[in-house]
Amino acid sequence: MELHDAKMATCGPNGDLKGSGTVLEAYGRRLETLQHQARYEVLRDAADAVLGRRARAWLSPGYYEGSPYQRGMASDAGLLEVLAELELLRKH
What is the mean pLDDT of residues 29-51? Predict the structure, then answer.
């Protein structure tokens, strides 16, 4: 039974896993990409909601070492830290 009818980029025409055939090798990179995209969407939306026009400058990559963008994109824990900072900014 297939859970969906879309063809996965990690599967070949016969449904075989690409690469050496392990599930981790087939889906690990995809997971990393989706996590990165999700962190970016959440970070951007939250900054926009709290800071409005100032969000772009606040999130500018490389604005300074350890910028909110760098920390928020580095890991889920970093994203949670940045969201907490945005909450403090929202309350002030």
Answer: 93
